[in-house]
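chain below, 218 aa
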Amino acid sequence: MTKTGFIFDLDGVIVDTAKYHYLAWRNLAEELGFEFTEEQNELFKGVSRKRCLEILLDIGKIEASQEQFDRWMIEKNEDYLKYIEKMNASEILPDVPRVLEFLRKKQIPVALGSASKNAKPILEKVGLLHYFDCIVDGNNVTKAKPNPEVFLIAAEKLGVSAVNCIVFEDAVAGIQAANAANMLSIGIGDSTVLSEANYNFRDFREIDLQFLNGLLKE
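prediction:
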């Protein structure tokens, strides 16, 4: 059987840390004197921290020196880290452990491919780190999704060819990155938003063992 590798995004796929990112960005926006809405926060899905701040400052029509920009990046992250410090297993999205356990029993190589620079501490907090053979996150990549770099590095670390990798993503940029890497893309969330994915599921509760076993044979 061809060796298959599974790659998971973090935010919105394994845990819902997006709400904490939003709160931290909203706090910064308030400090800078403008409102940042949940609707505007949709622009930040799957986007690097640097790009998020650029968008935020654009929304607030704020000019910043490089020094200010760098300081706000650090400030936002420190605020975000205070939120994730309190995370625990209750934050894991439905049925994620069931799928990870299935892959582990089948001895399928599993990677994390995320823009987050805090992926490892988050997985430790929620007790899922042991399921992952490798972590590729914002500390390992120079190009943000939809560039496929994060997934290509993950495939290489798993020792699996890109065409035999399966990616779970909740963001359009992530689906586009997986497709650009010639990987099978599975959208977790709204199928109308993630229409470019090969398969779509609202969440992992909709993914049965028959489907997972089918993926291993493709």
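The CA atoms of residues 49 and 73 lie 7 Å apart. The first helix runs from residue 18 to 31.
thats it, cya
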